[in-house]
Amino acid sequence: MSATRMMILGLVQWMQPVHGYDVRRELLSWSADKWANVQPGSIYHALRKLTEEQLLREVATEQVGARPARTTYEITEKGAAEFQSLLRVNWWSVATPPDPFMAAFAFLPALPRAETAAALRNRAVQLGAGIQQLQALIGADWADHKPVYVRWMWELSIERAEAEIRWCERIAARIEKDEPYFPTPTGQPAGWVDH
Predict the structure, then answer these.
(1) pLDDT band of 187, cuts 50, 70, 90
(2) Closest CA to 195 of 185, 180, 184, 174
(3) Which has the closest alpha carbon to 101: 161, 16, 191?
């Protein structure tokens, strides 16, 4: 939530006065749902919560025709201070996001070797598709109207994915060569078979 909170506060400060719809659209155009885990459905809830906490203030609510009412937001002084605090914490720390794949990989010996090697190669294919998507975004005309550092973030995502693809391929090959999972046969947990 802290990344979502920081990003919403930052965008409101940057674009204010701004409708929640425009905050949502901007975050999705950056693909923040993928790299920052900003869920599109949580943005309006976060805007309301930040307003309740007096970090944002509602400037106006307007309704045009049968469309849903649109609320315009501005950041408060308290919200600007919170944004700066979150921004600095996230700039100066390294956090590894929870990854269900890592939890599954911890139980590598529980699946047949052929399946784990195939799953790793499948992961590499999926990561490759993500790279192609980001490269298409970088090459799109509308990207020319985004801040250049959004492109830099996409480049970082591409390089991370490329490194993981290489790792997937290398580990799949080691599994297929029947490299042992445990240093000695007696080191295996009970009930696990190195298959």
Answers:
(1) low
(2) 180
(3) 161
Residue 66 CA, distance from chain mean position: 34
Cα(100)–Cα(177) distance, integer angstroms = 26
As a whole number of angstroms, the distance between CA 158 and CA 152 comes to 10
pLDDT of residue 21: 81
Strand ordering across the sheet containing 70-75: 18-19, 70-75, 56-62
What pTM, to 2 d.p., does this model score? 0.67
Name 97's Cβ contacts closer than 8 Å, sequence gap at least 6.
37
- CA distance linking residue 72 with residue 154, whole number of Å: 29
Helix-, strand-, coil-residue percentages of the chain, each rounded to 5: 65, 10, 25
Q: Is 146 helix (H, G, I), strand (E, B) or coil?
A: coil
